[in-house]
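As promised in the previous annual report, we have extended the structural survey to additional targets. Below is the entry for TetR/AcrR family transcriptional regulator.
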Amino acid sequence: MKEKIISKASELFLRLGFKSVTMDDIAGEMCISKKTIYKYFCNKEVLIEESTSMVHRQVHEIMDSIVAKNYNAIHENFEIREMFRDMFKNNTDTSPIYQLKKHYPEIYQNILSHEIDQCTQCFRDNIEKGIQEGLYRSDLNVETYVKFYYTLIFHINENTVSESEAQRIELEALEYHTRAMATEKGVQELEKQLKRTIY
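The corresponding structure token record, generated without further manual editing, is:
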């Protein structure tokens, strides 16, 4: 039951926002009493913590499965972006990450500390792969470009209220990041990915 509650809560938080979803909403959606939820979670903050941890794990499992498909480095980044777009489609258009930072800053900081480590590793692997494939320039300072990219992405997510706006800017950041690193062959692949991209 505990896992079912976390799963349903995660879905509602991402779709409707961390602030607006109440324990009553979760109980109503699951056709259980609020008392049942409180049996497992003493308050909403604890449930949010568990839910964000679960989403964090899911995100990285999906990212690993995308990497395992062995797309080229540029295609891989676009596939990961699409995964985020699908996961964070919500009804309120208020970015869940922005809401989490604003209303539950401690939980946000906790998630962020794990996220930065895992994201920087993912970005680093992608850049090294792209260099080997001849899509990115071989003279890049990998660590600097990793820092550039995560600074851009985290800044967008922390400071953009609207989820659709965040996704639009993220796509532009991905294009900007890729063009800055790309060889001629990489630019051709980037143009190909941009043509098939849904905003």
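DSSP finds ten helices and no strands in the chain. The radius of gyration is 19 Å. These points will be discussed at the next consortium meeting with the crystallography subgroup.
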